[in-house]
Amino acid sequence: MPEAATVSSIHLHVGQEVALSGWIYNLRGSGKVAFVLLRDGTGLVQCVASVDRLGPETFSRIRRLGQESSIEVTGTVQADPRATGGYEVRLTGVDVVQEALGYPITKKEHGPAFLFDHRHLWLRSRRQQAILRVRAAAVRALRGYLDDHDYLLLDSPILTPNACEGTSTLFGTDYYGRTAWLTQSGQLYQEAGAMAFRKTYCFGPTFRAEKSDTRRHLTEFWMVEPEIAWADLDDVMDAAEDFLVEVVARVVAEARPHLEILERDISVLERVQKPFPRVSYDEACRRLADRGIPMEPEDDFGAPQETALSDLYDRPVMVHRYPAAVKAFYMKRDPVASSRALCVDVLAPEGYGEIIGGGQREDDADALLARIREHGLPESAFGWYLDLRRYGSCPHGGWGLGIERFVAWLCGIRHIREAAPFPRTLDRLEP
Ligand code: ATP
Ligand code: MG
Questions:
Q1: 397 contacts 361 by C-beta, under 8 angstroms
Q2: Any ligand 1 atom below 6 A from CB of 400
């Protein structure tokens, strides 16, 4: 019996006969020779079927197989610089496991709606695989970074009793007769964690009933949220910068072949080096005005403003001290300008916009209570959160990075929905 192999390890088997299992990615050929591009989940390899080696019956069966038919084959491995991946397998035997007919995703152009309707199959295509492998590399990199830098993984709950950033974007669900909300941020729990362990993080799904259909919003996305005790806004910016530089470098090192499949300009990612430019919101507004970009005074930045700003720099830019009025209740006010919050957004280059939002938290119990009241939030739900300010409060802060936005930027893809295996958007809950 030939040794079982995978496409990813095919280079170890040159000159040997191996057994492979997989699916037909593409098939072309003539009367006597057929070229089967075999996909086994680890990669693609060209297999050559010839009537001489396989006999007329098997050969003609192969010739008729549709895309994505599943097969088990044996064959000898040859190095061949002309073939995809640099190797070729000369088939000595083929077992057809299931004959697929009329696979819906073909070489012709399909619209996004069709492709997302067939997401369960679309995952098999080369580009989608590259994106999702970059996503996996990004997750590994960010977890690795945080674990290596003494942040303790502390999972925040998904079902929560309180609305951290207002109720309008929350999904509710029945919880034994009361309403539980699917979390839109694990941050408040990380604040409790940071007071216990100094540096913590969570990484998990978050849910936001986003009402607008943009290319940067999903209703379900994964967010990593580190939190640090004894840290002010500058410390948070330093930590977020170090995190981003190191995580991007790890992804580039690990996932370069996948980024190349996506034809990503990797030099853009290699320029993600310290120091990131840091501009205040007020300074950013002046720069936008200089460039004639319209905006409402004291408003949050939207996509046009973020794009125009990031175009001024060759690496991510940190915008700090937004108007407190457009930011969440828990943000600490700037003691120098009380209308400004001690917050920071990191904007990715090339118009990708905000990928990180973070800042220093209000650590004074009275000020925090006043904010909760101003925002009309249910006070009773925040008793435990106020406890964190009553028992050993200290300056602290952190940030959140949405993995899909991060991956979309890493990969250079326009819409973040391709960065999720099964994206959930305003108009999509299937498949
Ligand atoms: P935006 O203003 O773009 O909606 P936000 O200010 O609501 O973003 P935060 O609450 O600061 O975002 O969330 C932290 C991070 O989570 C963002 O920087 C982004 O990477 C990600 N994120 C936020 N909302 C979404 C979403 N709907 N889909 C995907 N990622 C998101
Ligand atoms: Mg939002």
A1: yes
A2: yes
